[in-house]
Amino acid sequence: MGTEGMDEASNMKVVLKHYISGSAQETDMNLTAGTIKLKAPLGSNALVVKNLFLSCDPDMIFKMTGHKREHCDPYTLGSPLTGYGVAKVLDSAHPDFAMDDLVWGITGWEEYSLISDTKNLIKIKNTDVPLSYYTGILGMPGLTAYVGFYELCAPKKGDYVFVSAACGAVGQLLGQFAKLHGCHVVGSAGSPDQVNLLKNKFGFNEAFNYKQEPDYNATLKRYCPEGIDIYFDNVGGKMLDAVLLNLRPHACIVMCGKTSQYHLEHPEGIQNLPSTVTKEARIRGYLAVNYYHLYPKFLEIILTLIKESKVVYVEDISDGLETAQKALVGIINGLNIGKQVVAVNCL
């Protein structure tokens, strides 16, 4: 139903019932009904948007624990979850945005949102690709992959690259960047279907199902017998510890995330850091939000690669806000095939 001429609309939203301890469950969230005013308050610089696609990202699980960390606050109980999404502007009190603009950035897990913090909201100008791509390959995950590979790790042709959580939005693109650069690429994933996707769709040289590997150190020696020059760490924990034992001299570890740790009350310790001394390795963490100034450069590069079919991208789109809870929990359990997206509304 359209909203033209309406001052208020019904608004379904996904809210957090309680802070979690351990693995997230669908029952930790509720789908509730509400209403929203469709006019942005005058002088507020805010936008009212219709949410089109929502991104399921692992750090959302951390925000459900109630723990605070430096760059993000936990979710507020009883309020809608927030995360990256694609939306259409319905009303604007901001001079840089107008009605019918398409944008991507942080929005609410609801049908409509009032966005007050527009600092990192980016206007979508290229619409000849699926809009859902701006939750992944053309959005924050894509920029994360670009910055990590091209700006931070100084890759060389022939490098041995290992990517964990390689079937996610960041991992699938990182692996393809490395292959285009002439690297030997190995990835880990959470299901046989994901392993097949890595090898036969994304062009990884090798891939393995980490759930079937009881000894990560032995696994890495089997799949990376020459050692690892570059590790893109999306999971942390035991996998990171095993990688430290398999580094080549002057290796680089780029810290993208730590999905294996987000739900733990006490994160696992790392035992093998002395390997960074003997291998003269470096570890670099980063946040994509601090590299938004590179987004225009990245967008130009990635759009060309997409149009020339030099990179491929796989999405797992869940239809309807009522599927959002299941979709979010599924990414932690490795149930998604490709980037997990929730389609909320039609244009």
Automatic annotation (TrEMBL):
InterPro entries: ADH-like_C (IPR013149), ADH_N_2 (IPR041694), GroES-like_sf (IPR011032), MDR_fam (IPR045010), NAD(P)-bd_dom_sf (IPR036291). Residues 169-302 form the Alcohol dehydrogenase-like C-terminal domain. SUPFAM superfamilies: GroES-like, NAD(P)-binding Rossmann-fold domains. Residues 14-124 form the Oxidoreductase N-terminal domain. Pfam families: ADH_N_2, ADH_zinc_N. GO terms for molecular function: 2-alkenal reductase [NAD(P)H] activity. The keyword Iron-sulfur does not apply. Keywords: Oxidoreductase. This is Enoyl reductase (ER) domain-containing protein. It comes from Hibiscus trionum. The lineage of its organism: Eukaryota, Viridiplantae, Streptophyta, Embryophyta, Tracheophyta.
